[in-house]
Amino acid sequence: MTLKIAPSILAVWDKTRGDTGEVVLAARNALRAGADWVHVDVMDGHYVPAVTFGTEMVNALQGVGVLDVHLMVESPENVVKSYLQAGADRIVFHPSASDDIGGVLQTIADFGAVGGLALDVDEDVRWLEPWVENIDQTLIKQVLVMTVKAGAGGQTFRGDLLEKVNIVRRLVGPNVTVVVDGGVNAQNARQCAAAGADCLVAGSAVFNAPDVAEAIAGLRAI
After folding, report:
1. Please, what sign has the CA dihedral across residues 183, 188, 190, 196?
2. What is the pTM assigned to this prediction?
3. 53 with 45: CB under 8 angstroms?
4. Which entry of 36, 41, 44, 89 is annotated as an active-site residue?
5. Using the 8-state DSSP alphabet, how is residue 3 labeled?
6. What is the mean pLDDT of the chain?
7. I want to staple 55 with a disulfide (CB 3.0 to 4.6 A). Which of 65, 86, 154, 162 is the partner?
């Protein structure tokens, strides 16, 4: 299996104090260096305390490559269409934040994008159960499992959450992409893959490395 690597631009955003031009340049360089997707962490200050960027960042990144948007926002049903219109190719959101999970997933599918759920450390895998019986026909094509608490970059990876990754993989089967996000680096990438991950989100491990291409290759070398 070849792992997909999705560098998180949050690390660049934090490092450059919100310089959109630097973020776009870093994202483009990461893709040229071998990354598969660009991971965009949207935080609204409500679902999580932090505030990052919004549709303007997705729009600025449009055309750079595959944009994998992680909505850490309250009521994603109110904003998901705007992110799709801005250029998101893949969107995951937190089920505990939504009053209309099916509606959000349907909107994503209607735009021809890939939709799915993100599970924070305190969101149980039971959120997936209504969708599992007919998983090949459902609107869930991706599940992101947090291995740190959602809301900030640079946290330490929690290995105890890999069992959750393993449970998710068993629940959704081989045709749903399972993403691990949070504190991922070359030292724990193999564990993530062994637990069932198809894709790794990494911010600091990629963008703070002396050589971005080597960092991406190191994450993928399992």
Report:
1. negative
2. 0.96
3. no
4. 41
5. -
6. 95
7. 86
Provide the β-strand partners of residue 93: 71, 117
Q: Give the tens place of pLDDT for each residue, 139-170.
A: 999 999 999 999 877 789 999 999 999 999 99
Where do we find the tokens 């990876």? Answer: 157
Least Cα distance to 119 among 185, 182, 68 occurs for 182
Residue 41 annotated to the active site: yes
Per-residue tokens: 57: 């960042």
SS3 130: helix
160 carries an active-site annotation:
no
Q: ∠ CA 198-201-203 to the nearest 5 degrees? A: 160
Q: Which two tokens stand for residue 44?
A: 């609204």
Tokens of 115: 């939709």
Residue pair 37/219 in contact (Cβ under 8 Å)? The answer is no
Q: Which domains does the chain have, with CATH numbers?
A: 4-220 (3.20.20.70)
Which residue in 14, 44, 89, 181 is the catalytic one? Answer: 181
